[in-house]
Write a structure and sequence with these properties.
Among the domains are: 123 residues, no CATH class; 80 residues, no CATH class. Strands 1, 2, 3, 4, 5, 6, 7 and 8 form an eight-stranded antiparallel beta sheet that branches. It is built from six helices and eight strands; from the N terminus they run αβββααβββααββα. It is globular and about 75 Å long. By secondary structure, the protein is of the alpha+beta class. Bound molecules: zinc ion.
Length: 302
């Protein structure tokens, strides 16, 4: 990160940056983790993610801000890049030969895939602590005891995950009455693999609240929500975008003409950009899973 030694906040950030696997709650595939949200504060942004080389992802909050809904071509250089591809699709579809031309359809699909690379995803971040569960016998009864870490961490939610936390959880668990119930109970997060009809295997996060309320754990350090998103200026964004375009190529004439005969009909949903095609976390909504049991941690409380 860039910082300034005259700025105490920057200095603290640099000092903390290498500590204990980061400041984020992470849940791996197949893993269950107890989490306690420690405040109802949230911060949300639409974030463009570009891959500049292997495992080098750059996150760029959309210059349109949260209110533009993730598409601000007149304000944000990356959204403008998306628009170029959407415009090209419109142009291709306006061609009277479009419905009979595989070549035009392949080009439209190419533009669609390319456009999606530049679309942002909504990210909402809160503060939480992670807990470690152990099962103990108390008077012949099995009880899950959860020990929470003392350091607060960031926890990020994709849009479908945040809907689960703020809507679905109240539908599925009648004992959840108000948003206070989100912070006065332990939550069991698990990342499970599902079979998607169209997409094949994908993973999603389930959130299951504890039936009983418990006292908030003691937290000794809390990261600042204001520091979550790395805001960049327009010229900085343009530089990153140009590097990405150089790396990935941006010429639709690159479509391999030999492949054209092998490609089937264009999908109907050229304009349906609601799917999370380039979701790095591979998260998708399947509300049914929220009701699944917590598996091996099945004590009376969960
Ligand atoms: Zn944008």
């Amino acid at each position: 990160m860039k910082g300034n030694l005259d700025n105490q906040k920057d200095v603290d950030k640099i000092k903390n940056s290498g500590k204990s696997g980061g400041m984020w709650v992470r849940i791996n595939k197949g893993e269950k983790k107890f989490v306690r949200l420690i405040s109802k504060d949230v911060v949300s942004e639409w974030v463009h993610v570009l891959e500049l080389g292997k495992n080098n992802y750059v996150s760029i909050p959309c210059l349109g801000g949260i209110e533009k809904g993730g598409y601000a071509p007149n304000i944000c250089p990356i959204c403008e890049e998306t628009k170029k591809h959407w415009d090209k699709i419109k142009e291709l579809k306006a061609n009277p030969k479009f419905s009979s031309s595989k070549k035009l359809q392949v080009e439209a699909n190419f533009e669609k895939d390319r456009g999606k690379e530049f679309q942002p995803k909504k990210s909402t971040v809160m503060i939480a602590v992670e807990g470690e569960a152990s099962i103990k016998k108390v008077g012949g009864k099995k009880v899950t005891e959860i020990k929470f870490e003392s350091d607060g961490k960031y926890i990020s939610f994709t849009e479908p995950q945040f809907d689960k936390l703020t809507l679905k959880i109240f539908e599925d668990y009648p004992f959840m009455k108000s948003t206070d119930d989100l912070i006065n109970r332990n939550l069991l997060f698990s990342k499970v693999e599902k079979d998607g009809k169209k997409t094949g295997k994908y993973t999603e996060v389930d959130i299951k609240p504890s039936k009983t309320k418990t006292k908030a754990p003691k937290v000794s350090s809390i990261p600042d929500l204001d520091d979550v998103f790395d805001y960049k200026k327009e010229d900085e964004i343009k530089k990153i975008l140009n590097s990405y375009l150089r790396l990935t190529g941006d010429d639709s004439d690159d479509v391999d003409k030999d492949e054209i005969d092998e490609v089937g009909e264009i999908q109907e949903d050229v304009f349906d950009d609601s799917e999370d095609l380039n979701d790095l976390e591979d998260d998708e909504v399947d509300s049914k899973s929220v009701k699944e049991s917590a598996g091996d941690l099945d004590d009376d409380d969960f």
